[in-house]
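Predict the 3D structure for this chain.
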Amino acid sequence: MVYGDIEYFGEATGPECDASEFSVERLMIDNIVDNRAVFRRVIWEERGGYDTEMPDRLGYEDWDLWLQAAKRGWQFVRIPEVMLDYRVRSDSMVRMCRIPTNHRRLVGYLAMKHRDFYAAHLPEIPAMARRTVHLEGTLDKMKASKFWRARDVYVRLRRLVDRSWS
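Done. Predicted structure below.
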């Protein structure tokens, strides 16, 4: 799986550069690969294509495919240069995905669908956000709760990590 950076044009312009290299933990928190990847056909065939059960077909089917590929041990390589020109439109599917209620629903769906994968990597996720001092304590409390669900953990981790990266 190979991907690079994006150059935007249309309603927004300029490069979107992701200075960090790929990590499974970052992929679990954000669709860092999104639509810019080139991958082997066998990855698509192993998965059976995109998930047609995504809520309201709002998007993130690619993110689901990347999570499936990571789960199966496929390697991701980032080429640190612009590899895709991407038209930005206010009515695009990506914008629909990022509406907070849609985003929460889609992320919740992915976290529940891949809950075993998320649970297996939960101890590794806080290492990404060392600047957030209370993250590890929060994670421990969430894991200690007998009622925690993967979706809830994901949403809480996402909020904490977003704050630590801003």
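DSSP finds eight helices and four strands in the chain.
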